[in-house]
Each structure stands twice: as C-alpha cells, then as structure tokens.
Design a protein that fits this description.
With about 250 residues, the chain is mainly β. The chain contains two helices and 16 strands. The strands form five sheets. A five-stranded mixed beta sheet has the order 7-14-13-9-10, with no helix packed on it. Strand 13 and strand 14 form a beta hairpin.
Amino acid sequence: STNSSTSSTATTTINGSMPLGWVKVDNPRFALTPDGMLTVTSPFDFESDPQRYRLHVAVTDLAATVANRLATWTELDVVIADVNEPPAMPNTTALVVDENQPSDTLVGVLDAVDPELPDADGITCLVLDVLVVNASVNVNSSTPLWIAFDTNTTNGTVPFYFDNRTLLATFGLDHETHSVYTLVVECTDSSPDALSTTAWVEVTISDVLECQSGTTPDAAGISCLSASKSFMAQMSTPGFAAALTGLLLLLLL
C-alpha cells in the first residue's frame, strides 16, 4: 500500500504545446489518470523496493493561448507501507531418500521463507496429505488412482512428519512397496495472523541393494556375495593384495 503527502508547489510559465490538465509524473512506477488520480504501474515490494519516493507532478491551467499557459509543479512524497505476507516457497519440491533407513531419518529441508523475517527461522510446516500411486489400478478400474494416508492419525503410520521446516521419515521406507510419495504440505509463519502457504513435495525412495541372510553386498554395491565369495573378492582387490604383501614383508624381517 502507499501513502502520499504534498510537500511543496511551484508555478511557472510553460512555452510549447503542453496539453490541459494533469500532464506529468517523473517516475515510471507511477501514472496519472485524466482526472488527476495518482496510480501505480506495477506492484511494490516493501522488502526489496525503495520504501519512499519523491515525485514531481505537473498540472496546467485552461488558458486558451498555449504560450501563456501556466503549470504548477507539485512534490509528492509516497511511502510504501509494509503488509504481512505468507511464507514464500516453491510450488513443488523434489527430495530423495534411500530405502530402509532408520526412523527419524532426514529427508530434506523445505525452502520456505517469511518475507518479513527472511533471516529468522520461525516457519512451521505440516503434512496435510500423503499420496501414493495405486499400482493395482487398470485403465477401466473404478479403484482410485491414488492411495491416501490418514494424516490425522497419531499411531505412527504416516510415513513423514515435520520438525519446523525439516522433513523426516517416520520409519524405514521400502522402494519396492512405494517408490514415490506425493505430499501436500502447509507452512505457516510466526506472525499473529499465522499466514500459510500450501505446496507439493515429491519424495523419491531410492532403491538399495538388499542381500539375503548369509550374503553381503560386493564392493560396488551391485550384487550380493556369499560369505566365502565375499572374502575371495576382497582378496582379489589391489588394496587387499598390497596389505597382504606388506604383512608378509614384516614377517620376513
């Protein structure tokens, strides 16, 4: 919003073809209507734009002779008033977390900022909905395309929760069960108005090699090896061979 006040006026003789009425304001962020109302040409942002503008506005009289027409120049001070705004954040955020991680694993931190307090972290976020694709649905099925978790429950079955802006996994997530979760989240500022912004968060669950009992992942994490094969694979690596050579040299000394 803007406030304005007249600070001074001056009258001069104008030579030329200046039209009648309100004719000029010397800042492109402002404009004059034919009936002399001062308007803005684009919205102002208190946090990033100048908070005060001094304008010079000209108005002419109705003299029939252009050469003798008089104009008055008026100075106007326009002050930009601050208005509380909801948190600013992306419409969609993409996050990734490995499967089978322990409870309370960090998933990511939302980029939500309070325009009035950009350096303070007073924003709290909440998971409103958690949706996953229903893999059993076919084109002609009447089954919903999405499966929704009940986020109103407190029994720990909702897979995600927030600590302020930090998104955490409630429990270990399985890539084979659901590889992508779509969250509807709401972030609220700390002002008395408690203004909020709603956005989407897409969490992808990365697939991790899972080995059966008695086997272990290979060095590259690509395939599973039995205990004996795993030991032999380690022996064939350059690092193991170098360590074994060093040990033998120590024994011979």
